[in-house]
Amino acid sequence: MSNVTEQRVLRRAQAHASTRTGILDAARRVAARGGARELSLRSVAAEAGFAPAALYGYFSGKDELLLALAADDLAALSRAMREAALRASGQKRLASVASVAIEKIRNMESLAAASGAQSASAGDAQRLFNGRLIAALKVLSDAAGNPADTREGQCDAVLVGAAVAGLSLMVRSGRLQALGFSADEIVERLERRFSSRT
After folding, report:
1. What percent of the chain has pLDDT over 90?
2. I need a surface site. Which of 97, 132, 161, 184 has the fewest CB within 10 A?
3. Same domain? 20 vs 48
4. Alpha carbon 72 to its chain's center
5. CB-based burial of residue 53 (10 Å sphere; 0-12 exposed, 13-18 middle, 19+ buried)?
6. Which residues form the domain of 92?
7. What would the pLDDT profile of 83-93 be if each residue is shown by its tens digit?
Protein backbone atom coordinates (compact mmCIF):
# COMPACT_ATOMS: atom_id res chain seq x y z
CA MET A 1 0.00 0.00 0.00
CA SER A 2 1.23 3.46 -0.78
CA ASN A 3 1.79 6.01 1.95
CA VAL A 4 -1.14 8.11 0.68
CA THR A 5 -3.47 5.09 0.70
CA GLU A 6 -2.34 4.13 4.22
CA GLN A 7 -3.04 7.66 5.44
CA ARG A 8 -6.47 7.63 3.83
CA VAL A 9 -7.31 4.28 5.45
CA LEU A 10 -6.06 5.57 8.81
CA ARG A 11 -8.16 8.75 8.52
CA ARG A 12 -11.27 6.70 7.68
CA ALA A 13 -10.66 4.40 10.63
CA GLN A 14 -10.19 7.38 12.94
CA ALA A 15 -13.35 9.05 11.61
CA HIS A 16 -15.28 5.80 12.06
CA ALA A 17 -14.03 5.41 15.65
CA SER A 18 -14.82 9.05 16.42
CA THR A 19 -18.35 8.76 15.04
CA ARG A 20 -18.88 5.50 16.94
CA THR A 21 -17.77 7.23 20.15
CA GLY A 22 -20.17 10.09 19.41
CA ILE A 23 -23.02 7.62 18.94
CA LEU A 24 -22.18 5.92 22.24
CA ASP A 25 -22.09 9.31 23.98
CA ALA A 26 -25.51 10.11 22.50
CA ALA A 27 -26.82 6.72 23.63
CA ARG A 28 -25.52 7.39 27.13
CA ARG A 29 -27.37 10.74 27.22
CA VAL A 30 -30.60 9.13 25.98
CA ALA A 31 -30.23 6.35 28.55
CA ALA A 32 -29.63 8.89 31.33
CA ARG A 33 -32.93 10.59 30.50
CA GLY A 34 -35.16 7.58 29.96
CA GLY A 35 -33.27 4.47 31.02
CA ALA A 36 -30.97 2.22 29.03
CA ARG A 37 -33.65 -0.43 28.51
CA GLU A 38 -35.94 2.11 26.92
CA LEU A 39 -33.50 3.61 24.43
CA SER A 40 -34.12 3.03 20.76
CA LEU A 41 -31.87 3.41 17.73
CA ARG A 42 -34.21 6.13 16.51
CA SER A 43 -33.82 8.18 19.73
CA VAL A 44 -30.05 7.68 19.74
CA ALA A 45 -29.80 8.68 16.07
CA ALA A 46 -31.81 11.84 16.74
CA GLU A 47 -29.60 12.70 19.71
CA ALA A 48 -26.44 12.12 17.65
CA GLY A 49 -27.77 14.07 14.66
CA PHE A 50 -27.97 11.12 12.28
CA ALA A 51 -30.67 9.40 10.27
CA PRO A 52 -31.64 6.16 12.07
CA ALA A 53 -30.36 4.02 9.19
CA ALA A 54 -26.88 5.56 9.56
CA LEU A 55 -26.43 3.84 12.93
CA TYR A 56 -26.47 0.44 11.24
CA GLY A 57 -23.05 1.25 9.81
CA TYR A 58 -21.77 1.16 13.40
CA PHE A 59 -24.10 -1.18 15.28
CA SER A 60 -26.21 -4.08 14.00
CA GLY A 61 -29.06 -3.17 16.34
CA LYS A 62 -30.08 -2.15 19.82
CA ASP A 63 -28.51 -5.22 21.47
CA GLU A 64 -25.11 -4.48 20.00
CA LEU A 65 -25.39 -0.82 21.03
CA LEU A 66 -26.31 -1.81 24.60
CA LEU A 67 -23.42 -4.26 24.77
CA ALA A 68 -21.02 -1.58 23.51
CA LEU A 69 -22.28 0.85 26.18
CA ALA A 70 -21.92 -1.78 28.89
CA ALA A 71 -18.44 -2.75 27.65
CA ASP A 72 -17.37 0.90 27.90
CA ASP A 73 -18.82 1.06 31.40
CA LEU A 74 -16.99 -2.13 32.38
CA ALA A 75 -13.71 -0.64 31.14
CA ALA A 76 -14.31 2.46 33.27
CA LEU A 77 -15.23 0.24 36.22
CA SER A 78 -12.01 -1.76 35.87
CA ARG A 79 -9.94 1.44 35.78
CA ALA A 80 -11.67 2.78 38.90
CA MET A 81 -11.16 -0.52 40.72
CA ARG A 82 -7.46 -0.69 39.75
CA GLU A 83 -6.99 2.87 41.06
CA ALA A 84 -8.72 1.90 44.32
CA ALA A 85 -6.44 -1.14 44.62
CA LEU A 86 -3.36 1.07 44.24
CA ARG A 87 -4.59 3.45 46.96
CA ALA A 88 -5.67 0.71 49.39
CA SER A 89 -3.67 -0.77 52.20
CA GLY A 90 -2.82 -4.45 51.87
CA GLN A 91 -5.25 -5.58 54.56
CA LYS A 92 -8.34 -3.89 53.10
CA ARG A 93 -7.59 -4.04 49.40
CA LEU A 94 -10.54 -6.19 48.36
CA ALA A 95 -12.92 -4.16 50.53
CA SER A 96 -11.69 -0.92 48.95
CA VAL A 97 -12.04 -2.27 45.43
CA ALA A 98 -15.46 -3.80 46.15
CA SER A 99 -16.72 -0.53 47.67
CA VAL A 100 -15.70 1.41 44.56
CA ALA A 101 -17.31 -1.24 42.36
CA ILE A 102 -20.57 -1.10 44.30
CA GLU A 103 -20.76 2.66 44.01
CA LYS A 104 -20.01 2.59 40.27
CA ILE A 105 -22.25 -0.36 39.38
CA ARG A 106 -25.27 1.00 41.20
CA ASN A 107 -25.30 3.89 38.71
CA MET A 108 -24.55 1.82 35.58
CA GLU A 109 -27.88 1.04 34.06
CA SER A 110 -26.17 -0.21 30.91
CA LEU A 111 -25.02 -3.40 32.64
CA ALA A 112 -28.55 -4.43 33.56
CA ALA A 113 -29.86 -3.50 30.12
CA ALA A 114 -27.07 -5.39 28.37
CA SER A 115 -27.81 -8.56 30.33
CA GLY A 116 -30.89 -9.01 28.15
CA ALA A 117 -28.99 -8.37 24.92
CA GLN A 118 -28.78 -11.79 23.31
CA SER A 119 -28.72 -10.94 19.62
CA ALA A 120 -26.80 -13.48 17.55
CA SER A 121 -25.63 -10.64 15.31
CA ALA A 122 -23.83 -9.00 18.25
CA GLY A 123 -20.98 -11.57 18.24
CA ASP A 124 -18.09 -9.09 18.32
CA ALA A 125 -19.93 -6.94 20.84
CA GLN A 126 -20.56 -10.03 23.02
CA ARG A 127 -16.86 -10.93 22.87
CA LEU A 128 -15.83 -7.37 23.78
CA PHE A 129 -18.31 -7.31 26.67
CA ASN A 130 -17.12 -10.72 27.93
CA GLY A 131 -13.48 -9.65 27.70
CA ARG A 132 -14.17 -6.51 29.70
CA LEU A 133 -16.15 -8.52 32.26
CA ILE A 134 -13.21 -10.91 32.64
CA ALA A 135 -10.89 -7.92 33.14
CA ALA A 136 -13.13 -6.55 35.90
CA LEU A 137 -13.26 -9.96 37.59
CA LYS A 138 -9.47 -10.18 37.40
CA VAL A 139 -9.15 -6.87 39.23
CA LEU A 140 -11.35 -8.24 42.02
CA SER A 141 -9.37 -11.48 42.11
CA ASP A 142 -6.04 -9.64 42.23
CA ALA A 143 -7.35 -7.35 45.00
CA ALA A 144 -8.24 -10.44 47.02
CA GLY A 145 -4.74 -11.83 46.44
CA ASN A 146 -6.25 -14.90 44.83
CA PRO A 147 -4.95 -15.34 41.30
CA ALA A 148 -7.59 -16.61 38.91
CA ASP A 149 -5.19 -19.06 37.25
CA THR A 150 -7.07 -22.17 38.38
CA ARG A 151 -10.68 -23.20 37.97
CA GLU A 152 -11.21 -22.71 41.73
CA GLY A 153 -9.67 -19.23 41.60
CA GLN A 154 -11.86 -18.31 38.64
CA CYS A 155 -14.93 -19.58 40.47
CA ASP A 156 -14.03 -17.43 43.50
CA ALA A 157 -13.61 -14.40 41.22
CA VAL A 158 -17.09 -14.98 39.77
CA LEU A 159 -18.54 -15.39 43.28
CA VAL A 160 -16.99 -12.11 44.44
CA GLY A 161 -18.15 -10.37 41.25
CA ALA A 162 -21.67 -11.70 41.67
CA ALA A 163 -21.72 -10.60 45.32
CA VAL A 164 -20.54 -7.10 44.41
CA ALA A 165 -23.08 -6.81 41.57
CA GLY A 166 -25.88 -8.06 43.82
CA LEU A 167 -24.88 -5.66 46.59
CA SER A 168 -24.95 -2.82 44.08
CA LEU A 169 -28.52 -3.65 43.15
CA MET A 170 -29.55 -3.96 46.78
CA VAL A 171 -27.93 -0.63 47.65
CA ARG A 172 -29.54 1.06 44.64
CA SER A 173 -33.00 -0.22 45.52
CA GLY A 174 -32.65 0.50 49.25
CA ARG A 175 -33.19 -3.20 50.04
CA LEU A 176 -29.89 -3.64 51.87
CA GLN A 177 -30.70 -0.83 54.29
CA ALA A 178 -34.26 -2.15 54.66
CA LEU A 179 -32.77 -5.48 55.74
CA GLY A 180 -30.70 -3.68 58.38
CA PHE A 181 -27.29 -4.00 56.74
CA SER A 182 -24.78 -1.50 55.43
CA ALA A 183 -22.72 -2.05 52.32
CA ASP A 184 -19.54 -1.56 54.38
CA GLU A 185 -20.55 -4.34 56.76
CA ILE A 186 -21.12 -6.79 53.92
CA VAL A 187 -17.97 -5.74 52.08
CA GLU A 188 -15.87 -6.33 55.23
CA ARG A 189 -17.35 -9.80 55.45
CA LEU A 190 -16.55 -10.37 51.78
CA GLU A 191 -12.95 -9.35 52.52
CA ARG A 192 -12.72 -11.85 55.40
CA ARG A 193 -14.19 -14.69 53.33
CA PHE A 194 -12.32 -14.26 50.06
CA SER A 195 -9.10 -12.37 50.69
CA SER A 196 -5.91 -14.36 51.12
CA ARG A 197 -4.32 -11.27 52.70
CA THR A 198 -6.27 -11.47 55.97
Report:
1. 49
2. 184
3. yes
4. 6
5. exposed
6. 61-198
7. 999 998 767 89
